[in-house]
Amino acid sequence: EGGLLATGGTRGAIAVSTLAEARFFADGGFDDILLAYPLPAARLDECAELAQRLRAFHVLLDRPDALLSLRQRPLARGKRWLVWLKLDCGNGRAGVRPTDPAALELARAIANDAPEEVTLVGVYAHCGNTYSCNGVDAIQTIARDTTSAVLGFMAA
After folding, report:
1. N or C terminus of the chain with fewer C-beta within 10 Å?
2. Distance between CA atoms of residues 66 and 109, nearest Å
3. pLDDT tens string 81-94
């Protein structure tokens, strides 16, 4: 019910944090799911099953070796891995810093190295550093800083 409310009844474009959640929503008819946690390489076969099953199954990458894992596990039937580059804009939990030159190199590799296997959909940042905030002003400051970091990265 929560997923239907969140998507206005469309059963699409939902973000989850575990593969169990992804399977749950897929079983409920959702067909556009983002696993909003960096690619779990040890569970790549489970991700591939969802990618084959759904209209769109998106994964996050934040390391070159994760891209290599995807390229070594191509999808069948004309499907491509749908990838978002995970940026760390201050949360410190996962992702590559947008000011790190390696972030731009990884974005270029995702976009250009194997377009028949992998598609760069966009960049993703999670403001988990707001969890300890006290008040709207502190949250808005983090949101502005994150937005600025993402837009700066996109411009680069």
Report:
1. N
2. 11
3. 999 999 988 776 78
